[in-house]
Amino acid sequence: MDQRVVARLAERQHGVVSWVQLRAAGISPTVIDRRCRRGAWVRLHVGVYAIGHAPLARRGWQLAAVLACGRGALLSHASAAELWRLVPGASRDHHVTVPTAGGRRQPGIIVHRRPDLDPAVATSRDGVPVTEAAQAILDTAATVGRRATEKMLDQAERQRLCDLDQVQAALSRNAGQRGAGVLRAALTERLEGTADTRSPLEELFWGLCLREGLPRPRVNVVVHGLTVDFYWPAHGVAVETDGWDSHRTPERLQQDVRRNNRLALAGVFLLRFTYSDVTRQAKGTAAQVRSALRDRGPGL
């Protein structure tokens, strides 16, 4: 028996090992039981142990849940979304998907049984077997709702975890799954939003909204009889993007002043940004939009 093998394995696996791994390393069941009784090792789940005395970090508990569920198990649903940093961690329970119809229950683990689980969705992050990001978004959508699903899509795009084609592929594979309708609606709005932009500068501003995690606005919509570039109806905030030729003539400038006044009298808070604002000062521009939305509407 080589304790160094066990120590190295635990170090690679966030401090946890499985009974199967211990046996493969030459550790007998008697030794496993004895070390647990002495407190050198701590049983976390049936067949999963913490090695050493350091407190387990979140990754250790996540991997322990996966190891407890056996071969082919993957961290999934909200737990996978947390691992991908798409949602904040909150629940102490861990969601794990297994490619079988049966299996034992374990305290602290919510097991999702999918005999038809596509092996292509399996990957790993920080050494933890997990569903790919697109599948995690779909699996989580049913429980978090439309707005949080939109935020997950924003985060996935910002981190370059998956693109819209991969999300659409996950939907196609699981058309009847819970959460598919929520994700489909969020995805459709996003795809339609990019199609409605009418200029390169508008497309740049749309990309800024996605990268900076801003709520997605409606694009080129009529507000109180006037078409605005971007609009957040729940907040009453609009954005106009001004290209180099926006105010070339006094007549055009006068039109814009009247337009701004008309929107203001209708209760619309209007922000205007130039090409430089959208490109060179993107962070500051996003901060201004975020502040306006936070001051004038719910849920930001």
Q: Report the major sheet.
A: 4 strands, mixed
Number of strands: 12
The global form is elongated
* Average pLDDT figure: 88
**Strand order within the widest beta sheet:** 9-10-11-12
Q: Could you tell me the radius of gyration in angstroms?
A: 25 Å
- Structural class of the secondary structure composition? alpha+beta
Number of folding domains?
3
In DSSP terms, counting alpha (H) and pi (I) runs of 4 or more, how many helices? Answer: 12
Distance from first to last alpha carbon: 56 Å
Order of helices and strands: HEHHEEHEHEEEEHHHHEEEHEHH
Strand content: 15-25%
Query: Low-confidence spans: pLDDT under 50, at least 5 residues?
Result: none
Please bin the fraction of helical residues: 40-55%
What are the salient characteristics of this protein?
single chain; three-stranded antiparallel beta sheet; 3 domains; alpha+beta; 300 residues
Please characterize this protein's 3D structure.
By secondary structure, the protein is of the alpha+beta class. The protein has 3 domains: 3-53, no CATH class; 60-186, no CATH class; 197-296, Endonuclease, Chain A. The chain has 12 helices and 12 strands. The strands form 4 sheets. A 4-stranded mixed beta sheet has the order 9-10-11-12, with helices on both faces. The chain has a 3-stranded antiparallel beta sheet with strand order 1-3-2, with helices on both faces. Helix 7 (164-173) runs antiparallel to helix 8. The longest helix is centred in the middle third of the chain and has 27 residues, at 133-159. The chain starts with a helix and ends with a helix. 33% of the residues are buried. The mean pLDDT is 88.
